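Figure 2 data, in text form.
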Amino acid sequence: MIDNKEETQLRKDFVESSSFDSLPIKKNGRSGTAITFVTQYDVKLMHKIEDRINKPLIEYHIKEKEVLKLLVEVSMTRSQVEIHIDEEDFGEAEKINKRKHRLLEQEILAENNSLEKKNEKKKKKKKRLNSEK
């Protein structure tokens, strides 16, 4: 099911999902439904979509009280999840891993630099020994 809450433009992907799901048609072996919540300001847009897909969209009437009750529940749940994510330091492990990766890179660079310095010292020593001969 596709839930389009804030569809304000006549986008191609929206029109495709509306045309596909406005009738019980299967696509790639799967079926579904696209639901778009519209206001009185979106009616013209819906008519444009119907004109573009050459078929009427199905209109479902719902009771506003039921929607508002569910909206409150969804909003509360979303707030609880956001608080939980903040409390759990969501993404902290990723930050730690990035820091570890940077430290490892720095260690590798430091090792490479020390190896280069050792090689330079060896070359200088060889040159000095060759020039003394």
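Caption note: Residues 1-61 form one domain.
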